[in-house]
Amino acid sequence: MKKRKRKAKGLLAKKLKRDYLRRELEYGRLTMTRCIQNWKDMLTIISNKYLAEELLSCWHLFERGIDYKDLQISLLMDWLGDELEHHGMAFSYHTRLIDHLIDFFQRTFKSIYDDLASKVNEMIFEWTNINNEMFFRCQENERYIETMIYQMLELTKSEEYEEEAKRFSLIDECRATSETLLNNLKAIMQNKVEKLYQNVLKFTKEYENKTQKKMKLYQLMLTQHKVQEKEIATNVDKIFTRKKLIQNLTEKFEKISEMKDKHVNDVTMERDKLNEYFLTLRLKLFNDKKNDVDKRCILVSHSNEAFDYLEAKARGGTKMIKCLSSCRKYETFQEKLCPYPKGTAQFEVKTSENFQKYDLFWYKIANVNDSS
């Protein structure tokens, strides 16, 4: 009972584990696309290429940690255990059935043989008794006739010839009648004995036919039993081979489970490290975002000042252009042909460098807007 309870508990635990793993697999299959999309979105948000490559490698390592082959092997082992148990139960039931059939055949054969042997012995005993009785009767009749003959002979010696002749005639008649009676009795007994002998022969033939039929049935059952023994031997060999395979599979499963535990421990350590890296990266990203917001505020204030300065310069430039246009009217032909003085060229170079700095400034502002 305790073994059965333990076995039932083990089977229930295995079933619960299989159901849990199946639910986890279904949940993984259902949420795989969503998780992949979330990871893609996170990778697109993170602009650092090196960090994206690191996260992708960690993701691939995490995917390798979830190995579906271990689950399939465990399910296969459970199925093999159930099949082995069913096969053992069928084998034990088959052996019990064969033993029961052999015992039943022996008992029926013995009972039939005993019944027929007792009947034959009874018939033989009756026949011997009847034969002995008839033999004794015949002997008694012969003795009686001999005594009568002896008495008649004795009487003939003492009496007259006529009386002796009469008596001899009577004796002859009695003898004839006794002989006829004896012949009739012999014929009747011979007929009875012949009938009994024929009945015995018929019974023995029927008994032999029945025994031959039963022997044929026994031979058929014996051949079937031999075939079943061969099948049982082959099944036993198969069971031993499957037992060896199961032992090998259990050893492999234990090795794989040990490797899986090690692998899971490594993956958990990597996951913890990845979690730490992710938290540090998140803090760094929040800090960088905060710094970028502060810098953007500073840049906006500086850009407003620069716009004000440029608008003031533009207003002054419009006045200068008006003055230059008015002065241009009074320029001579030589002044129009002559190049710009050195002072103006240097001023243009300085202004172009300043404009390059402003271009870089506006490029940085555009990058910040894109990232936000």
Automatic annotation (TrEMBL):
One of its GO terms (biological process) is axonemal dynein complex assembly. Keywords: Cell projection, Cilium, Flagellum. One of its GO terms (cellular component) is axonemal dynein complex. The keyword Transmembrane does not apply. It is found in: Cytoplasm, Cytoskeleton, Flagellum axoneme. InterPro entries: DRC1/DRC2 (IPR039750). PANTHER family: DYNEIN REGULATORY COMPLEX SUBUNIT 2 (PTHR21625:SF0), NYD-SP28 PROTEIN (PTHR21625). This is Uncharacterized protein. It comes from Henosepilachna vigintioctopunctata.
